[in-house]
């Protein structure tokens, strides 16, 4: 796949600017020169210029200044044509290499300014930049395989700030798009249609007067219109924005300071619990909370048996299971004959403000009953040793 992408990128360069015109000029001079030399030299020297292929080969070698010397024109007409090919070849080949070099330099400059289209696929896009973004990058590095982790940042930071971020996190494959991430054009530059996940965060890099949650809502609507199956996770400031984002199709939501009251109260009423959460969510300590795929041969057993399996294997302590919650469509509930009863049910759903298709996210069960049967899409939540 990477080889095909590089070939495609090379072919696109041949269609940019003057490259294809210079290439056509080289091909024309080489072909005409080969025809003229063949006309004058064929039959004039033994084993030289016996076919048109020999003449084309000689013209190519001469134009690129390689000069093997395996064939040499001996007639006056052939030498005059050869001189023309030499001088025009040096000029055209130099122009060809210079044009390609200028395209690469221009691309590099545009990429540094965040104006170049990103060719990543299956990447993570982070929209916005704030005081938590550095921690987000570090956590992604801790939780993921750095070799397969490709990140595109979309924000309006200065070029110097972005270069510092990329240098600081050089273990990550980071690229940058500058602009307003609510714009479809900017999201296209980040190749959002082919991304795996988009994380939308409150943006402190812009001078926009729009409310951050409002920009997050607009971005979610744009992304879901571009690719309905794209995973979109939003970090919002206000609880009131949650319903709007759910209706927009966001996959899950993080609300800033949602648990501040709980942690403050726990420091007073239940000392030790806030510190426990801090340890479990800190990926720089030895033991923390982890998500582990359940072996295929363990599907169908009970939660109690799975807990025993993890204890015996030494992987960690099983505390629960999670799975992606698939949205239930109204069409799954109703029949196919559009009866009056079905219409009544659908109308009542609408009047109640219930949209089953928006029920997304992950189902989580902490310490479920031991007789709970493990399903094929379940994933284990364990407290185990950090492997990173």
Account of the 3D structure:
There is one protein chain. This protein is of the alpha/beta class and 388 residues long. The protein has helices spanning 2-14, 19-41, 52-63, 76-112, 133-143, 159-168, 184-189, 212-226, 242-248, 260-269, 273-280, 303-313, 330-333, 340-351; strands spanning 124-127, 150-155, 173-178, 197-200, 231-236, 252-255, 287-293, 317-324, 362-366, 379-385. The chain folds into three domains: 2-112, Orthogonal Bundle (Helix Hairpins), CATH 1.10.287.70; 124-255, 3-Layer(aba) Sandwich (Rossmann fold), CATH 3.40.50.720; 286-325 and 360-385, Alpha-Beta Plaits. It contains 14 helices and ten strands. The protein has a six-stranded parallel β-sheet. Strands 7-10-8-9 form a four-stranded antiparallel β-sheet, with helices on one face. The chain is elongated, with a radius of gyration of 32 Å. 21% of the residues are buried.
Protein topology:
Layout: H1 2-14, H2 19-41, H3 52-63, H4 76-112, E1 124-127, H5 133-143, E2 150-155, H6 159-168, E3 173-178, H7 184-189, E4 197-200, H8 212-226, E5 231-236, H9 242-248, E6 252-255, H10 260-269, H11 273-280, E7 287-293, H12 303-313, E8 317-324, H13 330-333, H14 340-351, E9 362-366, E10 379-385
Parallel strand pairs: 1-2, 1-4, 2-3, 4-5, 5-6
Antiparallel strand pairs: 7-10, 8-9, 8-10
Helix pairs in contact: 2-3, 2-4
């Amino acid at each position: 796949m990477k080889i095909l992408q590089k070939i495609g990128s090379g072919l696109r360069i041949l269609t940019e600017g003057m490259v294809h015109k210079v290439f056509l000029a080289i091909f024309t001079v080489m072909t005409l020169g080969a025809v003229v030399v063949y006309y004058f030299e064929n039959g004039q020297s033994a084993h030289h210029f016996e076919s048109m292929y020999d003449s084309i080969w000689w013209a190519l070698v001469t134009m690129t200044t390689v000069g093997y010397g395996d064939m040499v024109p001996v007639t006056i007409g052939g030498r005059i044509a050869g001189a023309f090919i030499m001088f025009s070849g040096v000029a055209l080949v130099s122009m060809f290499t210079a044009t390609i070099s200028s395209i690469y330099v221009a691309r590099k400059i545009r990429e540094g300014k965040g104006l170049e289209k990103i060719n990543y696929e299956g990447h993570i896009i982070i929209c916005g930049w704030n005081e938590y973004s550095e921690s987000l990058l570090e956590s992604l590095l801790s939780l993921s395989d750095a070799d397969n982790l490709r990140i595109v940042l979309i924000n309006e930071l200065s070029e110097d700030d972005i270069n510092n971020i990329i240098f600081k996190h050089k273990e990550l494959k980071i690229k940058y798009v500058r602009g307003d991430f609510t714009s479809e054009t900017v999201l296209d530059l980040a190749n959002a249609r082919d991304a795996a996940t988009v994380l939308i965060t409150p943006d402190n890099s812009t001078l926009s007067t729009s409310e951050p949650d409002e920009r997050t809502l607009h971005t979610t609507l744009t992304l879901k219109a571009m690719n309905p199956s794209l995973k979109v996770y939003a970090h919002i400031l206000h609880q009131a924005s949650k319903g709007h984002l759910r209706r927009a199709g966001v996959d899950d939501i993080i609300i800033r300071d949602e648990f501040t009251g709980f942690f403050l109260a726990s420091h007073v009423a239940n000392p030790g619990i806030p510190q426990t959460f801090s340890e479990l969510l800190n990926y720089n300590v030895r033991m923390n909370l982890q998500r582990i795929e359940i072996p295929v041969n363990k599907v169908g057993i009970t939660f109690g048996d799975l807990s025993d399996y993890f204890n015996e294997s030494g992987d960690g302590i099983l505390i629960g299971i999670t799975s992606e919650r698939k949205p239930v469509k109204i069409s799954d509930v109703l029949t196919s004959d559009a009866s009056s009863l079905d219409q009544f049910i659908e109308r009542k759903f609408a009047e109640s403000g219930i949209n089953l298709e928006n029920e997304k996210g992950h189902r989580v069960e902490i310490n479920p009953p031991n007789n709970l049967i493990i399903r094929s899409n379940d994933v284990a939540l364990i407290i185990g040793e950090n492997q990173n």
